[in-house]
Specification:
Helix 9 runs antiparallel to helix 10. This protein has three domains: 109 residues, Trigger factor ribosome-binding domain (Alpha-Beta Plaits, 2-Layer Sandwich), CATH 3.30.70; 97 residues, Chitinase A, domain 3 (Roll); 175 residues, Trigger factor, domain 2, CATH 1.10.3120. It has 439 residues and is an alpha+beta fold. The strands form three sheets. Strands 6, 7, 8, 9 and 10 form a five-stranded antiparallel sheet that branches. Strands 1-2-4-3 form a four-stranded antiparallel sheet. A two-stranded parallel ribbon has the order 5-11. The chain is built from twelve helices and eleven strands.
């Protein structure tokens, strides 16, 4: 083949490739001979069909097939010989082909930049560490006890107090008309407790069994049912019964109900669990700090095609959030051109960081195996609770979908590899400081 470079500008490359006719003809004749051995044509025994007849009948299709095969073969050879790594699928254009003529095509692509693994020997990261406070253990014990509350019916007729439970029937109306989903019977509500509409349960304080009470509430602007969002509703509530909560004592018996051997054992398990959560937060902050360092040292130009694709993905999400009424207040104050500029910068950072992480992983022989993909799939399925087995079945029927886990797993393994090499300065912080989101 004859290759002529037509473009070499930044990361853009362009070539014209010419494959001589004799080479094409030899490949066509070989393919036609293969077809002749198996083709069945009335009047001829298998394998005895004249090559001229096979050429007449299948020549055009074979020419197209050979052209495609030659383009794939020669373009792969070109990229291998010149050590070119396309950032996205190259663009091909067939400019000359046909029986009796040479094949000519153009090839344009954007290549990946040369990415050097940075020296991180001068980097020291602050490692925030928090101790589990006694108050956190006590709060967890109280939550466990409250989750095992028993409610006892109150026989005497008296006003309900905050924290007590009412069993009620209700009918909700907007402008005097009952609305779908606004009617229910035998609903248990904790007075002044969390309710499905802010201000609903607070208005039940002082209610008595046998009473019918009418209250007014306003649905939040972001309420799930769009036809109710922001509207004022009136609820007619019939109080059927009152019950008070009995919270079990925090003792060895409660601990055994929670699966521990004793109260002391339960306290230890709670401390371990909270400690693991703190460790996860510590690793997350270390990872963020490390990625910030890598982003600063990813001082190469990112392929425009990859940045554009990443920006489009980000912008689609921004538009979707905007359509759902979830626009960031800071974004709402900016014009579209400013916003796009900011998100384009984010896209550029993500692409450069991704390419650097990929190169570090390649140099360190980091890889994600099938067992790790399986574990990630199972963890994902467990997030869906009762539907977990359905999710597992989906991935079994669509194994290609498991590839979505490979990127995040690869990144985490590269981060672990680097954190094992970078100096860390342990800093004691409060649990609140550890859990706070970075600015």
């Amino acid at each position: 083949m004859q290759v002529t470079e037509t473009l070499n500008e930044g990361l853009k490359r362009g070539f014209t490739v010419v494959v001589p006719e004799p080479e094409l003809a030899a490949k066509r004749e070989k393919r036609l001979a293969e077809i002749a051995k198996t083709v069945q044509i009335p009047g001829f025994r298998p394998g005895k069909v004249p090559l001229s007849m096979v050429r007449k009948r299948y020549g055009e299709a074979v020419s197209a097939e050979i052209a495609e095969a030659v383009i794939n073969e020669t373009s792969s050879q070109l990229m291998s010989e010149r050590n070119l790594r396309p950032a996205v699928q190259p663009k091909f254009e067939l400019t000359k082909s046909g029986t009796g003529a040479e094949l000519e095509y153009t090839l344009e692509m954007e290549v990946l930049p040369e990415v050097a693994v940075p020296d991180l020997s001068d980097v020291t990261l602050d490692k925030p560490v928090a101790q589990v406070p006694e108050s956190a253990i006590e709060d967890s014990l109280k939550n466990i006890a409250q989750s095992r509350q028993n409610f006892t019916a109150v026989e005497d007729k008296r006003p309900a107090a905050a924290g007590e439970r009412l069993t009620v029937d209700f009918i909700g109306r907007i402008d005097g008309v009952a609305f779908e989903g606004g009617t229910a019977q035998d609903v248990n509500l904790v007075v002044a407790g969390p309710g499905f509409i802010p201000g609903f349960t607070e208005q039940l304080e002082g209610a008595e069994a046998g009473e019918t009470r009418t209250i007014k509430v306003t649905f939040p602007e972001d309420y799930g049912a769009k036809d109710l969002a922001g509207k004022e509703a009136e609820f007619e509530i019939t109080i059927k019964s009152l019950a008070v909560a009995e919270t079990p004592a925090i003792d060895d018996e409660l601990a055994k109900q929670a699966g521990a051997e004793s109260l002391e054992d339960l306290r230890g398990k709670i401390a371990e669990n909270i400690g693991r959560q703190y460790e996860q937060q510590t690793r997350l902050k270390l990872k963020r700090a490390l990625l910030d360092v890598l982003a600063e040292r990813a001082d190469f130009v990112a392929p425009v095609s990859l940045v554009d694709a990443e920006f489009e993905a980000i912008w689609q999400q921004v538009e979707a959030e905007k359509a759902a009424g979830n626009t960031d207040p800071e974004d709402a104050e900016k014009d579209e051109a400013t916003l796009k500029g900011e998100y384009k910068a984010i896209a550029d950072r993500r692409v450069r960081l991704g390419l650097l992480v990929a190169e570090i992983g390649r140099a360190a022989n980091v890889a994600v195996n099938d067992q790790e993909l399986q574990r990630a799939m199972i963890n994902e399925a467990l997030r869906y609770g009762p539907q977990a087995m359905q999710v597992v079945e989906f991935f079994r029927k669509n194994p290609q979908q498991m590839e979505r886990f490979r990127g995040p797993l690869f990144e985490d393994k590269v981060v672990d590899h680097l954190l094992g090499q970078i100096k860390q300065n342990e800093v004691t912080v409060t649990p609140e400081e550890l859990e706070a989101d970075p600015e």
